[in-house]
TrEMBL record:
Gene3D superfamilies, per the entry: Dihydrodipicolinate Reductase, domain 2, NAD(P)-binding Rossmann-like Domain
Species: Christensenella minuta
Keyword hit for Glycoprotein: no
Entry's Gene Ontology molecular function annotations: nucleotide binding; oxidoreductase activity
Lineage: Bacteria, Bacillati, Bacillota, Clostridia, Christensenellales
The name this protein goes by in its record: Oxidoreductase, NAD-binding domain protein
Record keywords, A-Z: Oxidoreductase
Domain of life: Bacteria
Residue ranges constituting the Gfo/Idh/MocA-like oxidoreductase N-terminal domain according to the UniProt record: 4-131
Transferase listed as a keyword: no
InterPro entries from the UniProt entry: Gfo/Idh/MocA-like_OxRdtase_N (IPR000683), Gfo/Idh/MocA_oxidrdct_glycsds (IPR050463), GFO_IDH_MocA-like_dom (IPR055170), NAD(P)-bd_dom_sf (IPR036291)
Residue ranges annotated for the GFO/IDH/MocA-like oxidoreductase domain, each copy included: 141-285
């Protein structure tokens, strides 16, 4: 059996998730399509690269990511660096002809995402973008139910992705709050997952009408601020904030359905809440990641005196079920879902078939196209169309 030797660029939060997911792959997805080796890790902070090598079990480490891509002992590239460096790294990986997994969003600009997508299309190598929520068993089941016609014609898709970590004037500047680095705020950071889920479950967007705002317009700058850590740090200065702290938008899908999106990183009561409802002519679905292992289904065709939501508990008979646990309702963890997403990437690399990934660079480009349209709509206070390319 082949061994796919992974080169990981970035040694932060997502490096931990991806490394654990890749290590667990052959145990959850057995027999594996290929063996996976954590071969080399790179980070511009060489101390983190060296630490990551020891912590996750990589064989080598590099400070220079271009050297990692060029190594003869690296077969596939996994990009888990911040948004603004995805473009150059993905282009270099594609140029090397090696399969590449890039975390979302594909780029911090629409132009960068389009350039990467077009390069992947001509390079004809396996390419995937990190939209792991597609691989939540309940979400995949929702897709199967919608595609089978069980909900009939889809009328409305309502979704929210809400967090609270950005609340407070003392939360320091970090790349997720810097428009030049991240490309957007809540919109690209968390709502892009909801955008991708909407495309996955309902279809492409025709046009959007948006409203967004920056709530805290100036933040303290301190040494090496890390997401979520609220430790007091020495304030070195202040930086203007231009990212969206909250965003709301309406969508008209190309199939005529309507979408209602809300996303904020200023939402007390939500540490990391992603939920959606789908309303159709024959029924409805409800999901929240706060009950990751459940999908609520309402059949509009039940006898009128017996209608109501029923709670479907995910188990071995559901998507990815046999890869996880033999009885229902034992739950999955964050790394398990990334492992499910990685299983598609590993299979695609092993079979050299770009169509086997879960979300591709095309999906990553489409999400960036929608992010750009939402930003334009909010700026110009009008509906903005999205080309169906
Ligand atoms: P992080 O800030 O924790 O780690 C990024 C690492 O990249 C840092 O160690 C930094 O030193 C390194 N780095 C920065 N510039 C570099 C360069 N030029 N060359 C080499 N290394 C460089 O970031 P985090 O939270 O891991 O996010 C990484 C990416 O993953 C982001 O694009 C984010 O949007 C995405 N993400 C996706 C999630 C998902 O659910 N799919 C969840 C969290 C993040
Ligand atoms: C921070 O808001 C974050 O880590 C996002 O960057 C991820 O995409 C999201 O899945 C979880 O929250």
């Amino acid at each position: 059996m082949d061994t796919i030797r992974i080169g990981m660029i970035g040694a932060g939060f997502m490096c931990k998730l991806h490394s654990i997911a890749l290590k667990n792959y052959p145990m959850y997805f057995f027999p594996p399509e290929a063996n996976v080796a954590l071969q080399c890790i790179a980070d511009s902070n060489v101390r983190l690269a060296e630490e990551g090598m020891a912590r996750y079990g990589y064989k080598e480490y590099e400070e220079d990511w271009t050297k990692l891509i060029a190594r003869g002992d690296v077969d596939a590239i996994d990009i888990v660096t911040p948004n603004w460096v995805h473009r150059e790294m993905a282009l270099e990986a594609l140029k090397s002809g090696k399969p590449v997994f890039c975390e979302k969003p594909l780029s911090n600009t629409l132009e960068g995402a389009r350039e990467v997508y077009e390069a992947a299309r001509s390079a004809r190598v396996v390419n995937a973008v990190g939209y792991n929520n597609r691989c939540i068993p309940a979400v995949t089941l929702a897709k199967q139910m919608i595609e089978s016609g069980q909900l009939g014609e889809i009328y409305t898709f309502r979704t929210q992705y809400m967090q609270d970590w950005a609340i407070g004037e003392d939360v320091p500047m970090e790349w997720r709050l810097d428009i030049d680095k991240a490309g957007s705020g809540a919109l690209g950071d968390i709502c892009s997952h909801a955008i991708d889920l909407a495309r996955y479950l309902v279809g492409n967007f025709a046009k959007v009408a948006a409203k967004s705002r920056t709530i805290i317009k100036k933040r303290p700058v301190s040494e090496s601020a890390v997401l979520g850590l609220k430790k007091k740090r020495e304030v070195l200065g202040y930086q203007e904030v231009k990212v969206d702290d909250e965003v709301e938008f309406l969508v008209e899908f190309t199939n005529g359905a309507t979408g209602i999106f809300t996303s904020s990183r200023f939402a007390y009561g939500h540490k990391n809440t992603l939920d959606f409802e789908v309303y159709g002519s024959r029924g409805a679905l409800k999901f929240t990641n706060e009950y990751l292992w459940e999908l609520q289904y309402y059949s509009g065709t039940d006898p009128e005196d017996r209608q109501g939501y029923k709670k479907i508990k995910m188990g071995p008979m559901h998507p990815y079920g046999m890869s996880f646990w033999p009885i229902a309702d034992l739950g999955v963890g964050y790394a398990d879902l990334k492992c499910a997403e990685m299983s598609h990437f590993i299979e695609a690399v092993s079979k050299k078939d770009p169509f086997l990934v879960s979300a591709s660079f095309y999906d990553g480009y489409k999400a960036c196209q929608i992010i750009d349209a939402v930003q334009r709509s909010a700026r110009e206070e009008k509906w903005v169309g999205i080309t169906d390319d």
